[in-house]
User: Which sequence fits this backbone?
């Protein structure tokens, strides 16, 4: 690696350039910000730490409290016999390391974080001016391990996550090389803190990804997860003719339950059906049970015969009739194992299952309706397939281009268009914005420390999904009460008051260099500190200052979320007109996305 550390006369790692160690910290932050898993993050940490501290090898281990063992996640560098870069099962009893027991028992939610310390292969106590009080006992096991592997010394830096000891960064030098110094321990402590920050970010991203693919009420997969799995399954179908089946169910009577017994009872009905759907999915190994939204659920099966899927759907309909307060389900099935014509896109399979479910609901059928298994008079095509294809203006059975009247249906039928361009579903918002952030990282379209670019990605992607009229990203310098516009975009004009005073106020608000005193906007001030809020114009209890701003600009509502990083405080705002989807349910998701964008390397906006 270019610019590696070399040894100085006093044994510390000297840089071939004065700022090598700073470069290593920045590089580590960049590597970890791009890591999608904890393993990727700690592997990057081991590589950077080895170079920066002129170590022979490095390892990152996690302290597993349940098993009471120190488990090695990754080794890097000159490895000894028996050591592997990614060990499957390299772990050691924690009680063999008395100098770390205290760390496991303490909370580090504030104040000075634990310092790194140095251990040599000789029989004398650890060397460090900053040794933790619990590190005074000489660790025979570490010393023996150093001698056994031909190493002279090691440097151990505890990694603290969420106020608790998470694990350690371990660096070693071979026999003949100088012992680590106190300067090295200081730097290793800094690296461990950066590793902790990177792990926290990776953990948040993982949590958001789980949230983005999970229905909050039932715990089942959500529509986003179904889309991803179905796309993959159809690739397998096209490649090797794997059978792909989709079961779509509507819970009957949910509106009645909500109206007569309350929404809490309606939620309980949905949860009970979700449990039955999960049990049904267990009979089809590898299948995915999901809630698409509202009263609509689905089951996606890959590799099972169509008859097996239909049998499970039959049983599911029977079980649904037994649910308290329920009226059963309307169930439609579409499978590539039946005579439904070519299926090359998720949209077509969904249309077929939707059409089958629609016919089941219209007939109040107690059994599933299966696409491709019934025919009209004589040799007429299957009515479910006809219904699905009539809803798709791009489909014709003969393969020719559809005419201008294609896609029109009678008033007694319905058209179902899933995957609309706009959505106010928090799960879809999380998935779409995280994908956009991942894409910008992969393409390196912005510098990793460009906070404004990351927040702009959040604002722009969210605004387009919600059909917002515009968005703002604002910045508050450290220690200041003045918030200034850093970036904004307006997609449509809105009509506010026409008076000269109102027009002047609007021009000041929407100016690219607008400045706001947060002392006059208490709700915004709280959001900049890590909060979120949504407002609907004219609603009782609105903050008067925020209400006045919406009225002057002609906005019907807004949602905002903020937070801080080392560069300062930040705020993302989305504004609504009559065409914008409801913003009230997405404040928490927007706050989580802003937190992800604010993690990692930071920089203030230009200017």
Assistant:
């Amino acid at each position: 690696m270019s610019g590696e550390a070399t040894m100085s006369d006093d044994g510390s790692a000297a840089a071939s350039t004065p700022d090598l160690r700073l470069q290593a910290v920045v590089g580590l932050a960049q590597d970890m910000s791009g890591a999608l898993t904890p393993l990727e993050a700690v592997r990057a940490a081991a590589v950077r730490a080895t170079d920066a501290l002129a170590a022979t090898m490095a390892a990152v281990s996690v302290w597993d409290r349940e098993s009471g063992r120190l488990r090695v996640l990754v080794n890097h560098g000159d490895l000894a016999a028996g050591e592997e870069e990614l060990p499957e099962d390299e772990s050691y009893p924690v009680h063999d390391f008395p100098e770390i027991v205290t760390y496991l028992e303490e909370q580090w939610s504030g104040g000075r974080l634990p310092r790194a310390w140095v251990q040599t292969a000789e029989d004398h106590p650890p060397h460090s001016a900053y040794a933790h009080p619990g590190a005074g006992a000489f660790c025979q096991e570490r010393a023996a391990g150093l001698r056994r592997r031909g190493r002279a010394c090691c440097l151990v830096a505890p990694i603290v996550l969420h106020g608790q000891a998470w694990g350690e960064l371990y660096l070693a030098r071979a026999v003949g090389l100088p012992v680590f110094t106190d300067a090295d321990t200081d730097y290793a402590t800094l690296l461990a803190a950066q590793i902790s920050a990177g792990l926290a970010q990776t953990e948040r991203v993982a949590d958001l990804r789980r949230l983005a693919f999970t229905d909050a009420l039932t715990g089942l997969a959500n529509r986003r997860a179904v889309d991803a799995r179905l796309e993959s399954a159809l690739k397998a179908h096209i490649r090797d003719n794997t059978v792909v089946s989709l079961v779509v169910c509507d819970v009957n009577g949910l509106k009645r339950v909500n109206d007569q017994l309350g929404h809490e009872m309606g939620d309980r009905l949905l949860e009970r059906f979700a449990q039955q759907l999960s049990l049904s999915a267990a009979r089809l190994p590898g299948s995915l049970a999901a809630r698409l939204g509202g009263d609509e659920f689905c089951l996606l099966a890959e590799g099972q015969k169509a008859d097996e899927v239909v049998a499970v759907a039959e049983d599911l309909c029977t079980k649904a009739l037994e649910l308290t307060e329920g009226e059963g389900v309307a169930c439609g099935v579409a499978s590539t194992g039946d005579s439904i014509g070519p299926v090359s896109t998720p949209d077509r399979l969904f249309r077929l299952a939707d059409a089958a479910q629609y016919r089941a609901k219209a007939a109040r059928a107690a059994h599933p309706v299966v696409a491709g298994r019934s025919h009209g008079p004589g040799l007429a095509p299957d009515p479910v397939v006809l219904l699905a294809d009539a809803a798709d203006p791009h489909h014709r059975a003969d393969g020719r281009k559809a005419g201008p009247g294609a896609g029109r249906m009678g008033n007694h039928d319905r058209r179902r268009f899933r995957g609309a361009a706009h959505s106010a579903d928090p799960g879809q918002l999380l998935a779409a914005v995280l994908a956009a952030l991942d894409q910008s990282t992969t393409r390196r379209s912005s510098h990793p420390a460009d906070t404004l670019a990351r927040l702009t990605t959040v604002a722009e992607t969210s605004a387009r999904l919600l059909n917002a009229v515009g968005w703002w990203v604002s910045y508050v310098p450290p220690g200041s009460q003045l918030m200034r516009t850093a970036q904004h975009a307006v997609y449509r004009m809105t009509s506010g008051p026409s008076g000269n005073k109102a027009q002047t106020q609007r021009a000041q608000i929407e100016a690219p260099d607008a400045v706001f005193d947060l002392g006059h906007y208490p709700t915004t001030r709280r959001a900049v500190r890590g909060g979120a809020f949504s407002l609907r114009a004219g609603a009782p209890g609105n903050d008067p200052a925020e209400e006045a701003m919406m009225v002057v600009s002609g906005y019907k509502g807004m949602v905002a979320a903020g937070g801080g990083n080392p560069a300062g405080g930040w705020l993302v705002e989305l504004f609504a007109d009559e065409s914008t989807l409801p913003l009230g349910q997405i404040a928490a998701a927007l706050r989580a996305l802003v937190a992800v964008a604010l993690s990692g390397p930071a920089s203030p906006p230009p200017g």
Observations:
- The chain is about 40% helix and 20% strand.
- The longest strand covers residues 151-161.
- Residues 14-18, 106-111, 126-137, 396-420 have pLDDT under 50 and may be disordered.
- The first helix runs from residue 20 to 33.
